[in-house]
Amino acid sequence: xxxxxxxxxxxxxxxxxxxxxxxxxxxxxxxxxxxxxxxxxxxxxxxxxxxxxxxxxxxxxxxxxxxxxxxxxxxxxxxxxxxxxxxxxxxxxxxxxxxxxxxxxxxxxxxxxxxxxxxxxxxxxxxxxxxxxxxxxxxxxxxxxxxxxxxxxxxxxxxxxxxxxxxxxxxxxxxxxxxxxxxxxxxxxxxxxxxxxxxxxxxxxxxxxxxxxxxxxxxxxxxxxxxxxxxxxxxxxxxxxxxxxxxxxxxxxxxxxxxxxxxxxxxxxxxxxxxxxxxxxxxxxxxxxxxxxxxxxxxxxxxxxxxxxxxxxxxxxxxxxxxxxxxxxxxxxxxxxxxxxxxxxxxxxxxxxxxxxxxxxxx
Length: 363
Description:
41% of the residues are buried. This protein has 22 helices and no strands. By secondary structure, it is mainly alpha-helical. 68% of the residues lie in helices and 0% in strands. The radius of gyration is 20 Å and the shape is globular.
């Protein structure tokens, strides 16, 4: 078990940034980027430019992006996602390929940026992470899904129910990521049950409409999964080693009395550890959360160029460290109730000073 005293500044203080306060969320969204954030954004945009050039020269193939766009022309052989997202893909298909790839990549970066601001994650580190650059290189939709989840959280706090519902629907396009995390955020939102149900009206209506436009499409997705199972070489989940025993890891997530910040960290970490399928690029969902510097460990992904897919599977240690760290802090608080008060007090004393420093630096 990790040392709780060392992990307090690593996890406890960042986790306190997870908030339902609409004023605080608005302040973060509208805050000027720091110099490091601006540099990280410039590098991410430069990487997109290089990737588009390489693709135009036939030196690179963005496999995931191609699978999405092929669905606009009736080829669903690599499309495992909700059909309610197809109108977006078809609208994008009217552009030339370079334009499609550019818009998609910019949407991914914007989604990660917005999520980092809304959830309180370490934004510059996330923008420079191997995980995001991998997603941009192959056109993976993870950044867009995470951005939709952040829009949902902002809209729920701002009490804009239709926007929240539409964002939740878009996030659900990628089932293994958007549905469970969207459900967790839906439950954690600071709203009444009446308001919570109201947010589901628009997603339910569009879901039903999609079944009219594309009859029985869920069965088509199941047929695609059977005929051409998705590539799981980048999956980090422990499920592939211990099977359903991994479900035990959900017990603390559900039953332990965590704060909202710690519970969301536990939930996202448990997704990476205990879902049947969880790709390493989906770890972006953890990095945009207030998980401290854990995303720095994503640099191990760069070693995959030398050591192959096995190095990517080792990234399971990232959610494992966060998971064990929160458990350790909880154990400390149960053993010494004053420790919880001291940790909160430390956050309240140090965070305003940190915010003042960031504003002075333009961030």
